[in-house]
Each structure stands twice: as structure tokens, then as C-alpha cells.
Amino acid sequence: MAKIKIQKKDIWIDMTPMSDVMTLLLCFFMLTSTFLTPEPVSVNAPNSVSEVKIPEQDVLNILVTPEGKVFCGTENKNNMQAMLDVMTDKFGVSLNAKQVKAFREDAMVGASMSQLAQYLNLDQEKMAEAIQKLGLPLDSINGGKSEFQEWVSAARDANPDIKLAIKCDSKTPYTAIKKLMSELQDMNENRFQLITNLDVKRLNE
Predict the structure, then answer these.
(1) Which helix or strand (DSSP H or E) is residue 194 part of?
(2) Cα separation, 91 vs 72, whole angstroms
(3) DSSP characters for 81-109?
(4) Residue of 78, 35, 52 whose CA lies nearest to 196
(5) Which positions ≥6 away from 175 have C-beta within 8 Å?
(6) What are the two backbone dihedrals, phi and then psi, of residue 180, each rounded to the nearest 5 degrees?
(7) What's phi and psi for 201, nearest 5 deg?
(8) Distance, CA of 27 to CA of 22 (rounded, Å)
(9) pTM for this one?
(10) Cα(80)–Cα(82) distance, rounded to whole angstroms?
(11) Cα Rg, the chain, nearest whole Å
(12) Quick check: 138 and 180 in contact, CB under 8 A?
């Protein structure tokens, strides 16, 4: 007796609607995502149970390394440019177009005004290496403000509504943090936030 062959039919699924949905989701995430600016040095912030969210805009981020080196910067490149203009005029530093471009592309300010031009002349890879050994001076100039304080003042001039946020490493000595806070308090900058990592384990206890 002859066997009856069952005709196999190919299953065809129209993937066009799915690809349209994936494209829309991709565009949505690209347009709504906030890209983090890489920090000049790696800092492991201490843990905390505080859930106060740091504003995403109009923030001057102040970074303190375990060695006590200080860096500062803001995500707004126009404010960074305005800060640079104030500082170069005040300290009599002249920068060319290439150096200004390198400054705008850098994550944070971390070189003293006397070293800034030389630092900005470096290649991008060498800048990342050099910044590890630099930092903003906290020593007062002729009994006046320190360079760090001058940068903070320039940020305040560029944006009067700017908020200060300090991020330090869990191994940063207390004396370094105390000195930084004293610098801010001397300028009547008494309101600032401390950036920490959320300790989920302690929060759930």
C-alpha cells in the first residue's frame, strides 16, 4: 500500500512590524538617555542609605581623590567656556583655538593655571595620564583666594543657580575633605551635596 506524503508548508512570519517597533524603541532610548561624562580619575564613593537625587543639570561636580587631589567641572560646555574665559583673563593666560577645543572636550578642570596651556597641548591619551598627577591648587594666592576658589567663583558667575556636589573616595583622608569644605565656607558656599553610592543592603535591613 502506497504511503501518503503529507505536504509540508513553510511558516512565514512578517517581521516588518517587529522591526518597526525595535527601531522606535532604539530611537526612544537614544533620545532620552543621558550620557555620563568620564571622570579624570577613578573614585569609589562611600556607601550611604540616603536616597536624595543629585540634579542632572546646573551642577558643579567637585571630585576629590584618595590622595586629596581636587578636580571640578560641569556638564554644560557653555558654562565651562565662560569659566575658562574668566580664569584666563584673571591670570593672564593665552590659549589658542586648539587648546580651547581640548579644554571643552575634557571632562573636568584639573590643571593649575600655570600648567594649563602645557597640559592642553598634549594628545588625548597623554592628557588622561597627566591628569592623574595634577589637581587644582588649594593654597591661597597672595593671601587671597586659591585657584580652586577662583574656579568655583567663575562657575557661579557663569550660572548663579549652579549647585555644588562633592564626590570623594571612601579612602580620602578626612583632613582633605575638611580643607575643601573650609575653602567653600570661606566663600560663603555653605550649601553643597555629597555624592555617595546607595547601600541597598543596609537600606533593606
Answers:
(1) strand 192-194
(2) 18
(3) HHHHHHHHHHHT----HHHHHHHHHSSSB
(4) 52
(5) 68
(6) -65, -45
(7) -65, -50
(8) 9
(9) 0.72
(10) 5
(11) 25
(12) yes
Q: Are strands 70-73 and 59-64 parallel, antiparallel or unpaired?
A: antiparallel
Q: Quick count: other Cβ atoms within 10 Å of Cβ 13?
A: 6
> Considering only CA atoms, which of 177, 190, 154 is closest in space to residue 73?
154
- Tell me the percentage of the chain whose pLDDT exceeds 70: 75
Q: Measured between alpha carbons, how far is 89 from 94 in angstroms, rounded to an integer?
A: 8
Pairing of strands 192-194, 70-73: unpaired
For residue range 65-104, list pLDDT tens digits in order: 888 888 888 888 888 888 888 888 888 888 888 888 888 8
Distance CA 159, CA 153 (A): 10
Please enumerate, as own/partner, the contacts of 3-12 that have beta carbons within 8 Å and a separation of 24 or more. Answer: none
Collapsing DSSP to helix, strand or coil, 165 comes out as: strand
Residues 145-164 have pLDDT tens digits of 888 888 889 988 888 888 88
Residue 201 cell numbers, joined: 543592603
* Strand residues in 65-188 grouped as ranges (E): 70-73, 163-168
Residue 46, Cβ neighbours under 10 Å: how many?
15
What does the block give as the cell for 170?
Answer: 571612601
Distance, in Å, from the CA atom of 100 to the CA atom of 73, rounded to the nearest integer, reads 15
Instruction: Provide the grid cell at 194.
Output: 555629597
